[in-house]
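hiii so um. not sure if this is the right channel but i have a protein structure encoded as tokens and i wanna go backwards to a sequence. like what aa goes where. can anyone help
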């Protein structure tokens, strides 16, 4: 067929298969891209997540030995056994230690709870123990132990001069060898009080009542308080608490620097995690 100068060689016919859309191919491509992007997101999240997941990582970055991995389940027999291991480890590293400071990198890692359980482990071993709250900014021990005189404590002794024997209180029914001294009313000058000679006198009074003092200290990194305590001659050993999935690599490195500046205080780790 010829029209003017144009010649039609053959007439077009409709194909039995459409050129587009191709649902099967589109589905395969979509699934492949989705899986690839999902895997990429997972990898990026892993790279950005600086939280430590294994005790070996915490030990490597802090340069401290792990005395025990403590189960997160509270009040279980496995947790008490782990605390007994921690107690034995501290006794091995500092055989004559009478004052043990318990701290962590930042708040919320479980150091206060572990300090209380460590004090209990010492008491169950037949020692007289005093658990002392050293957080004078945000004291919580009176609430945690439901103490009958929550308005008095360490700051009452430091500022008001009350005798320590009038301020310590029993904490656990049936365990008379364990007493606690809560922080007392919060104060704005915590580092100065923790550096004072008055604290030395309070610790001497406590040593007359107890064989071992467990100091429940504030975290190492956000405030100066725990560092001030580590610089005191009365502190014989330090237990650092790290929680798997919470403590970061940066926090572990910064803790290492803080503790390395105080080589005279033997330090070790208790890692919280299952």
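sure thing!! here u go:
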């Amino acid at each position: 067929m010829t029209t003017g100068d144009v010649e039609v060689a053959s007439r077009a016919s409709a194909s039995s298969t459409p050129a587009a859309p191709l649902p099967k191919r589109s589905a395969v491509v979509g699934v492949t891209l989705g899986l690839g992007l999902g895997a990429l997101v997972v990898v990026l999240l892993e790279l950005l997540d600086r939280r430590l997941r294994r005790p070996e990582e915490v030990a490597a970055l802090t340069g401290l030995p792990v005395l025990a991995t403590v189960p997160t389940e509270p009040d279980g027999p496995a947790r008490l056994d782990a605390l007994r291991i921690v107690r034995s480890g501290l006794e091995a590293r500092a055989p004559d230690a009478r004052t043990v400071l318990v701290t962590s990198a930042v708040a919320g890692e479980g150091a206060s709870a572990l300090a209380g359980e460590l004090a209990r482990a010492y008491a169950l071993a037949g020692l007289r123990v005093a658990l002392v709250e050293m957080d004078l900014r945000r004291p919580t021990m009176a609430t945690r132990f439901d103490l009958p005189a929550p308005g008095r404590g360490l700051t009452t002794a430091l500022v008001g001069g009350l005798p320590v024997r009038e301020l310590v209180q029993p904490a656990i029914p049936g365990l008379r060898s364990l007493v606690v001294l809560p922080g007392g009313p919060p104060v704005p000058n915590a580092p100065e009080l923790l550096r004072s000679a008055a604290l030395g006198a309070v610790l001497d009074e406590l040593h007359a009542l107890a064989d071992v003092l467990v100091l429940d200290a504030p975290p190492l990194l956000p405030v100066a308080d725990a560092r001030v305590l580590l610089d005191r001659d009365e502190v014989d050993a330090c237990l650092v608490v790290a929680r798997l999935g919470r403590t970061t690599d940066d926090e572990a490195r910064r803790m290492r620097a803080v503790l390395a500046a105080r080589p005279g205080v033997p330090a070790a780790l208790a890692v919280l995690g299952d």
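oh and The longest strand covers residues 237-243.
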